[in-house]
């Protein structure tokens, strides 16, 4: 079973693809590009889920790259991402790339 199939199964079975993200994260040694390619987020919800996963694993720049791909990001969703970034004290890292 491929990682994409695992992610789809997790989405169907539990309403979340976090387990697929974690499997890809471990499999691809924390390489965000490889994780993103393996998980292959196709919807805005999947992109946001992977972005949150990247933030929680200390990869804010990669997370924001995904957030920028989301069409019609709601105010609530953008605030959620911002709070998560600030609570993880990753703001300084973002300013270097901003």
Secondary-structure-derived class: mainly alpha
Helix content: over 70%
Question: Uncertain segments of ≥5 residues (pLDDT<50)?
Answer: 9-15
Order of helices and strands: HHHHHHH
Give the N-terminus to C-terminus distance in angstroms.
Answer: 38 Å
Mean model confidence by pLDDT: 82
Treating each run of at least 4 consecutive H or I residues as one helix, how many helices?
7
Largest sheet: none
Strand elements, count: 0
In percent terms, what proportion of residues is strand? under 5%
Radius of gyration (Å) = 13 Å
Shape: globular
Please, could you describe this protein's structure?
- The longest helix is centred in the middle third of the chain and has 13 residues.
- Helix 1 packs antiparallel against helix 2.
- The termini are far apart.
- The protein is built from 7 helices and no strands.
- About 7% of the residues have low confidence.
- With 98 residues, it is mainly α.
- Helices cover 72% and strands 0% of the residues.
Q: How is the secondary structure organized here?
A:
Blueprint: H1 3-14, H2 18-27, H3 32-39, H4 44-56, H5 60-67, H6 75-87, H7 91-97
Helix pairs in contact: 1-2, 2-3, 4-5
